Amino acid sequence: MPVAIITGGGAGMGLAVATALVKDDWRVALLDVNSAVGKAAAASLAGEKNQDDKESLCLFIRTDVTKYDELRAAFEAVAKRWGGNIDFVFANAGIAGKPDFYDEVEGEPQEPSLLVEEICLRGVVFTSHLAMHYMRRNTPTPGGVIVSTASAASIYASPELPLYTAAKHGVLGLMRSMSIQLAPEGIRVNSILPGAIRTMLHSKSIWDQFPVGDFTPIEEVVETVLGLVRDPTTTGRAMEISAGETFDRRQMAYCNETMQRIMQGKSY
Q1: Strand, coil or helix: what is 194?
Q2: Positions marked catalytic
Q3: 155-184 residue pLDDT tens
């Protein structure tokens, strides 16, 4: 059976993708910082199978994606439990943060919180880095699929959430760079760029400000992620998903040949 690791897997998009994979007889490890949510999700997906049984289809590992040692230990635990191979990693954990970056303060300005950057960008960097190394060890053939959760804010300005926007721009840049470098090794790297999806990312009061038609059904996200996993030709894809439509957002054209050569690391 193929093996997947999903960060932020206890709820929302992570859990929805995990549910679809388990139905397809994948073994899925849910990594989440929320133990109560994660344990309940894993138990539900595992059904009547014993969580101590190595044949169980799902397990939960409490993991803070901003802590590299915790994340590395989780990857190693999954590899040991299910025979070594890790076929798909969904780097999905994230938060939206608060629109307080611009707040006026009295006296000296205080250092802004970078928790959004730590979870949404650093967590994806750590997850993708580990996925790359473990996929290189896959047998009999190295390779695998990494999908990161970027955002529509990866390609548009989101004035109220500048730090979230900055982090998600970083996720997209990471994916595009890794996808080119790792393609010869059989490791495919892609991103999804969802619009508004009614998950735990925001409170009900915030979501209620938007018309129902603005939301993207989570089923569309699942379909897009599974398509990236199943299609062996997909790498470097940035799939924007919005209210019933999906768009393949290709990298913009280079301004000239000089820039292309510089960005591709060619000296001639």
Answers
A1: strand
A2: 164, 168
A3: 999 999 999 999 999 999 999 999 999 999
